[in-house]
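Repro:
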Amino acid sequence: MDLKPLPELPGVSYVMPVLNEEGYLESAVRTILDQDYQGDKQIVLALGPSSDRTNEIAESLAAEDPRVSLVPNPQRDIPIGLNLAIGASVHPVIVRVDAHSELTPDYTRRGIEALRREGAANVGGVMRAAGATPVQRAIAAGYNSPYGLGGGAYHLDGTPGPAESAYLGIFRAEAVAAVGGYDPYIRRGEDWELNLRIRNAGGLVWFEPALGVTYWPRASFGNLAKQFFATGAWRAVITARHPKETPLRFYLPGMLVLGLALSVMVLLLQIIGALPWQWWSIVHFTPVAYLAAVLFACTRLPGLRGSERVLGLWALITMHLCWGTGFLWGLIGGAGRTVDKSRM
């Protein structure tokens, strides 16, 4: 991928898909406006058909600051909204931002420095999940643990270097254009899929742990379950498209769900006498091993104390089983119109 040299202070367009985010949107936009970067800034909000005060808040922010602009996203899907926002962008650098995210003040400046220094097509940093309630803190601890989301580089502090994907991302606009933008069909996992196409086109995706983003996850286990089921289903679609590029860790939750389901079926058949206890009982190793592993993982969750670890245990189990069930659903019948209903 042949990219033109960037000037020292290139203009930056921040793009954000938004749907039902009245509790988070204003704070997310303020952290962008408060960036210590001296180059030109533009914020493009792609507004879905929210049922709360989100669009009203967005219109107020746009009226207050001319750097904030709005584009409608009636289909509500994230990749479509991102493409619409990118289409309205005017600067050579695109920064993807989530309404649940808050950038550190030096995020853009450090990201541009890394983008120029490495000649990268995309640069990403560390996602640091946070919570305001015991349940949200437990869910955040799962996000921040390698036992929760599987150990992707951007979930953990680490060393700078080439990466498989990036959280959010500071992109060269010409790199995004060269690969055709986000795939509008992929409704979850769209970042990984875009970064795969950028890497296959010869672009460098760079992990820069000096970049920090605070992420506020779902605040209830029900919404976490909906989110992870949808994510797993769409990951299966991406896996079917790119089986050779898919890391083993993406298969593990589905294998776990299959192992647990097999154990339950065998146990029921053993109880009614349809199967002997000897030999067949070996399948019960899966739930026993998983229970031991998840209890161990619970003791390693960061930032939790006392009874909050019980909530952390439930957060891990919800992540693993809902993601795995969604993955199997997507493998069997495709994701179809599966969406993250926690945002509805």
